[in-house]
Design goal:
By secondary structure, this protein is α+β, with helices and mostly antiparallel strands. It has 13 helices and seven strands. The chain has a five-stranded mixed β-sheet. A two-stranded antiparallel ribbon has the order 1-3. A hairpin with a 2-residue loop joins strand 4 and strand 5. The chain is rod-shaped and about 200 Å long. The relative contact order is 0.06.
Length: 527
C-alpha cells in the first residue's frame, strides 16, 4: 500500500498530474496548417500551370504565329515584285525593270527561310511547299526565260496567258497559306484570352481561399484556443485576487486542459500553504503573547534579582564584616578566615548576578539605535579605565574610528570588556601594547583589538565565547567568565560577527564587525 502518496495528499501537497486525452493545440495547429498549406500548394501549382500555359500561348503568338503571317505577307510581296518586274520587262524590254525581279528573288529566299523555321506543323509545311512549287513553276516557265532573253517582248507576249494562269496559282497558294496562318494566329489569340481569363479567375479564387483560410484560422483560434485561454486567464485572475477556493477548470484542447489542471494544482498547493501559514501565524501570535508574558516575568525576575536577591547578599557581607569588627578579640584566625570566605562569596555572587543581568538585557530591552561616534566612545571608555591602564603601564592606541548607528551603552560595554580583557591577560615579560584597528569593508566596518599579552591558544578560540567558560582559575585571573560571551551577544545584536584570530602572535587579536546601516540603505536605494 502506497502510504507516501496518501501522506502527501493529507498534507495538502500537489495532486498527481492528470492525463488528458484528445488532441492538443499543437496537433490541431499542425493538422490545420498542413491542410491549409496543402490547399495553398495545390492552388499555387494550378496557378503556376495556368501562368506557364498563358506564357506558352503568348510566346507562340508572339514568336510564331504573328512572325509567320508577316513572313508570308513578305513572301507574297516578293513574288508580286517579281511578277511586276517580269511583266514590265516583257512589255518594254527595258533592263531596269529586272531590278524589282532580282530584289524579289532575294526577298523570297529570306521569307522562305523564315517561314521554314517557323513552320511547326504539317499544314504550314504543306502550304509553304505548295507556294514554293507553284512559284518555281512560274519562275521556270515564265520569269526566268523572259529575264534571260535579249528580246523579251515576243516571248512575253507568246506566254502571257500561261504566265497569268501560273501566277494566279501562286496567288491562290499564298492565299491558302495566309488563311491558315491567320486562322492559327486567331486561334492563338483566343487561347491566350481564355488563358488570361482562367488565370484571373484562378488568382481571384486563390485570393478568396486565402481570405477564407485567414477567417477560418481566426475563428478556429478564437473558438479553439483564445476563448479557452481567456476563460483560464479569468480563473487565474480570480485566484490571484485572493479567491483561493475557486477551482480553475479547463476546457478546449488537451494541453490547455492539462495547463488548467496544473494551475489548479498550484492553486490548491497555495491554498494549503496559506492555510498552513494562517495556522503558523496563529501559533506565532500565541508564542509571541507567551514570549511577552515570559519577558514580563523576566523583567520581574531582573527587578527581584537586582533588589531582593542582592539585598540579602549585602546583608550577609555587612553583618559578617560587622561581626568581625565587634568580636575581633574573641575570634581566632580560622574564624576570621571563614568570615572572609563568606564575604568574598557574597561579593562574587553579587557580581555574578550583575553580570547575568547585563547579559540577559542585551537585545531584550529594545532601544532606538542612534549615531554613535566610536572615536569619542573609545576615549570615554579609556577614561573610565584610566586607573587600570595606569596601573598596567599599558599603551593604548587606535585608528580613526567611524560613526555608526547602534546602542551606545552596549557598544561602550563591548569596548570596555575587550580593553579590560587585554589588560587583565597581559604578559609580565613585556610592556603592554593595545591597539584598536578599523577598516571599511562592503556594507560594514571591521575592528580588531590587538594586544601582546599571553594570548589564546587556537583550540580555545571558540570556547572563550561560551558563558562561564574559563581558561584560568580565579586565583590566577579574577572574573566570572562572561565577558567575551557578552561581547559576542552585543556584536550579533548589532548584525556583526566576532572571532579570535588564531594566526596572531604574540598576544591575542579579537576581530569583530559592525554593520554600516547608512551604506546598506544607500546600496538598496541605488538598486
Amino acid at each position: 500500500m502506497d502510504t507516501v502518496g496518501q501522506d502527501d495528499s493529507e498534507r495538502g501537497g500537489t495532486p498527481p498530474r492528470p492525463v488528458s486525452s484528445g488532441w492538443t493545440t499543437r496537433r490541431w495547429l499542425g493538422i490545420g496548417t498542413t491542410g491549409a498549406l496543402t490547399l495553398l500548394l495545390g492552388l499555387v501549382l494550378c496557378g503556376a500551370w495556368i501562368f506557364a500555359r498563358s506564357t506558352a500561348i503568348n510566346n507562340r503568338l508572339v514568336d510564331h504565329s504573328s512572325p509567320a503571317l508577316i513572313a508570308s505577307v513578305r513572301l507574297e510581296s516578293a513574288l508580286v515584285n517579281q511578277e511586276t518586274g517580269i511583266r514590265g520587262y516583257g512589255i518594254t524590254g527595258r533592263p531596269e525593270f529586272l531590278t524589282p525581279y532580282r530584289e524579289g528573288l532575294a526577298q523570297q529566299k529570306a521569307a522562305v527561310r523564315q517561314l521554314r523555321a517557323l513552320s511547326g506543323d504539317t499544314t504550314a509545311q504543306r502550304d509553304l511547299d505548295q507556294v514554293e512549287n507553284r512559284a518555281a513553276r512560274w519562275q521556270s516557265r515564265i520569269a526566268q526565260p523572259v529575264a534571260d532573253s535579249a528580246d523579251p517582248v515576243p516571248l512575253a507576249q507568246d506566254r502571257a496567258e500561261e504566265g497569268r494562269r501560273a501566277f494566279d496559282a501562286v496567288r491562290d497558294a499564298m492565299a491558302d497559306q495566309q488563311t491558315h496562318l491567320q486562322a492559327e494566329r486567331d486561334q492563338a489569340r483566343r487561347d491566350l484570352q481564355a488563358a488570361r481569363s482562367l488565370r484571373n479567375w484562378t488568382f481571384t479564387a486563390i485570393a478568396l481561399v486565402i481570405l477564407a483560410l485567414t477567417a477560418l484560422i481566426f475563428v478556429a483560434l478564437r473558438r479553439g484556443v483564445t476563448t479557452h485561454l481567456e476563460r483560464l486567464s479569468a480563473d487565474a485572475r480570480r485566484v490571484a485576487r485572493g479567491d483561493f477556493n475557486h477551482v480553475v477548470s479547463g476546457s478546449g484542447p488537451a494541453d490547455l486542459r492539462l495547463l488548467a489542471a496544473d494551475v489548479d494544482a498550484m492553486r490548491a498547493g497555495l491554498a494549503a500553504e496559506l492555510a498552513f501559514r494562517d495556522t503558523a501565524q496563529a501559533s506565532l501570535a500565541a508564542q509571541a503573547a507567551e514570549l511577552r508574558r515570559s519577558n514580563s516575568e523576566l523583567e520581574q525576575f531582573a527587578y527581584v534579582a537586582s533588589h531582593d536577591l542582592q539585598e540579602p547578599l549585602r546583608k550577609v557581607a555587612s553583618f559578617c564584616q560587622l561581626l568581625e569588627r565587634r568580636y575581633s578579640e574573641r575570634l581566632d584566625d580560622r574564624a576570621r578566615q571563614y568570615i572572609a570566605f563568606a564575604v568574598d562569596g557574597a561579593n562574587r555572587m553579587q557580581g555574578l548576578i550583575n553580570d547575568l543581568l547585563a547579559f540577559s538585557r542585551v537585545g531584550r530591552l529594545l532601544t532606538d539605535h542612534v549615531a554613535v561616534d566610536l572615536d569619542e566612545l573609545f576615549k570615554n571608555t579609556l577614561d573610565s579605565l584610566g586607573m587600570a591602564v595606569e596601573e598596567s603601564d599599558a599603551v593604548v592606541t587606535h585608528d580613526e574610528l567611524p560613526t555608526l548607528e547602534g546602542e551606545r551603552t552596549q557598544l561602550g560595554m563591548l569596548l570596555q570588556n575587550l580593553i579590560t580583557n587585554a589588560i587583565k591577560f597581559r604578559s609580565p615579560d613585556r610592556p603592554l601594547r593595545i591597539h584598536l584597528g578599523a577598516r571599511r569593508t562592503e556594507g560594514a566596518w571591521e575592528f580588531a583589538v590587538t594586544d601582546n599579552g599571553i594570548g589564546i591558544e587556537p583550540e580555545f578560540a571558540e570556547r572563550v565565547f561560551v558563558v562561564f567558560q574559563r581558561l584560568h582559575t580565579r586565583e590566577e585571573y579574577p572574573g566570572n567568565g562572561i565577558g567575551l560571551a557578552l561581547c559576542r551577544k552585543i556584536v550579533e545584536y548589532h548584525g556583526g560577527t566576532i572571532e579570535i584570530d588564531p594566526a596572531h602572535s604574540p598576544g591575542a587579536r579579537v576581530v569583530f564587525t559592525l554593520l554600516d546601516r547608512h551604506d546598506s540603505a544607500v546600496a538598496q536605494v541605488s538598486q
